[in-house]
Amino acid sequence: MFTATGSTGLYKAPFSKSLLIIPSALAFLLAVPFSQYKSLFMYNLHTIKQEFQIWRLICGRFICLDLTDAFCSSLLIYNFRIFERRYGSRKFASFLLCSWVFSALFDTLLVEALHYACDVKVDVLPSGLLAPVFALFVPFYCSIPRVQVTQVLGQFAITNKSLVYLVGLQLLTSSSFMWIIALSGLTSGMLYHKNIFKTQHVIFIPNWVARCGSYTLEPLFSTAEPTLESAVGMGATLDIQRQQRMDRLDQQVLLSQLPQMRRNTQQQGGLLNWNRFFPSLRQRRNGNHQADPRPAQNNPANPPQVSEEQVARLMEMGFSRVDALEALRASNNDINVATNFLLQR
Description:
A hairpin with a 3-residue loop joins strand 3 and strand 4. The protein is built from 16 helices and four strands. A two-stranded antiparallel sheet has the order 1-2. 60% of the residues lie in helices and 4% in strands. Helix 1 (14-31) crosses helix 11 (207-221), helix 4 (67-87) crosses helix 8 and helix 15 packs across helix 16. By secondary structure, it is mainly alpha-helical. It has helices at residues 14-31, 45-51, 54-60, 67-87, 89-118, 130-135, 137-143, 162-172, 178-193, 199-202, 207-221, 236-267, 274-277, 308-316, 321-330, 335-344; strands at 43-44, 124-125, 148-152, 156-159. Keywords: Membrane, Transmembrane, Transmembrane helix. Its main location: membrane.
C-alpha cells in the first residue's frame, strides 16, 4: 500500500498526535463555551450544494459536534497511529487526504441514491473526521496480524484487534445516518489501499508540504523514545509489575518449547535434559540494589543476539524499542511469543 519514507515519524507519530489534540479541542470548545456557533459547523449537504459553501464542507468534515463521536474517533486514531510509524507521516497524511476527498464525493452520491431509491431525504450528516477514520479500518484489517489474547466462554476468541472493532461499532451505531459516512470511508479506503484508478498517484501530499509540516508539527507533538531503563531506584510497585510480566513470559516460553522437549525426550530414550530447556531467560536486576559491575564468571553463556528485523517488526506494531528488545531477549528471539507477551502485559 505504502512505501516507507525514512525514519520521520517512525515512533513519534506527530501527525496522529495533532489529529488527536486539535479536533478534540475544537469539539470541546463548540460543545461547552461556544455552543451557539454549532450551526456554522454542521455537515449540511443541502446548504453546501445550494450555496456552494466550501468552508462549511471543510469544517463539517473536520470538527466533531458530538463529544461521543469525538472521543471514539480519537481512540481509533490513537490505535491507528501504527500506520504513521510504519509508513511515515507523509504517506499516512496522503492516505487520510485521499480518503477525505473521495468520501466527500461518496457521501453526496449515497445521499442522492437514497433519496431517489427510498424517497428518504438526508440533509445533515454526522460531522467530524469520521470517514477517514473508517477508511483506516481497511489497512487495519488487511495489514495488522490477528493474535489471540484470550477466550470468552471457551468459544469466543478475544484478539488484539477486538477492542478496536468494538470502538468502531460504537461509532457506527452512534447516529442513524453514520452508516453513510462509514460506507463512503470504507470505499475510499479500499480505493487507496488497492490503488484503484491510480489513486495513490492522483491525490498525495507534496514533499514541500511534508517538510513544512515536519518542521511545524514535530517540535510541538514529538516525544523522545526512552533509550535505557533505570537499573536502580525502581519503585516497589513497578518492580512487582515487571516481575509478574516476566513470569508470565517465562510460562509462555516454556509452553512454546514443550513440543521440542517431547521430541528430544523420545530421541533420548525418555530422559529429559531439563537444563537445556530451562536456561536463564534474562539477567534479572534487583531494583533496590546496584548490579555487580564485574562480569559473571559462573554463567559463561552470552544472552541471545536480538534480530534487528524482528525489533523493527515489533516497533511497526506500535511497541517501543526497549520493550521489543526485552521481549525478544526473554523469548529467545521467538517473535510470536514476544508479540503475545507485549500484547498481554
